[in-house]
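Give me the fold.
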Amino acid sequence: MMTRTHTPPRPTGGQLGAAAEIMVATQLMLASNGRFSGYVPLVDDDAIDVMIHDKVSHATIGLQIKSWTFLDTDRPRTVQFDIRQKTWRDSPDLALLAVAIDGTTGQLETAWLVPSAEVPDIAQAARDKMSLRPNPRHASDDKYARYRLTSMRAIAQALIERLDR
């Protein structure tokens, strides 16, 4: 009798991306002490995954969220976030939030908050996409270091400062 080996399922890229978007929206609400409300568009073909509304200033910012989820204990030297050039645009009301998440705990490990106007300057352009390849280690001094944040509270604070301007 032949036995079949069963490989346990792993989340798909789409599942991981959707989970990251929901995690970011809910954790920003908590990290801002309820100051932020997050809204998810019915269709995200406008480079916006989550709209953040500030209940104090009544300003909003659209976030395109790109995620990398570590599903095991290995941590590569760099992670990669790809942005479609066709949908990306420069707008003061838009930012890229790239997040690296521990897939076992669901906790944020590292994030990069990049104003939309600066994304093309730090990304490597390809035919139809732009790629960011930051080092997720907190002590890294790569070209992405100035955008790096290490907690949802720090992301919330950076967004508050931006929205209060």
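The domain at 13-164 is CATH 3.40.1350.10 (Trna Endonuclease; Chain: A, domain 1).
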